[in-house]
Amino acid sequence: MRNSTLQMIQSKVSRPEERQVEMRRFAKFATVGAMGFVTQFILVNLFVQVGGVNETLANATGFIVAVVQNFFFNRRWTFPESQSRDAGRQMVQFFIVSIVGLVLNTIVFTVVHTMLEPMWNSLIANPRVAHAVSYNFALCVAVGVVFFWNFTANRLWTYRGLGKERDLAAQAAVQSASNPAVNE
Q1: Is the pTM of this model over 0.85?
Q2: CA-to-CA distance for 14 and 18, rounded, in angstroms?
């Protein structure tokens, strides 16, 4: 899926400078995603290790908190020009994308954890440590898979057309400056 995300970026933009802008956005989105991962990782481990919460429920709860955090950081830093748009609508779009992401995350998390926990138990003598390694490994795989879905879907839907708006505004400014009749 990673290649398809990068191919989507390249197909959306034809000029090298546009590609550079999109690749910077991708890097910023990845940075925000990494911060969200840290939040989710901490919450999952607190809920499971301290609170005794089921891993799948802890994962879903951590994911939701990370999504809220990521929305605000992405709106302000990754896609700052999106602040001129209706925040409520963007939030709804971001959360719809994230709900699909949560479903994907939960499926991947559950499958990886369930399939690999016996392996971890055979490799690690302490069952509690093996269990923690298993669900943390599953968390890493799930977050990695869902990251590419989130970027692609949010860029194509939640934050679509942002570069076009900037380009149209720049074109209008150039036309206005070069056409004195418009300015009078």
Answers
A1: no
A2: 7
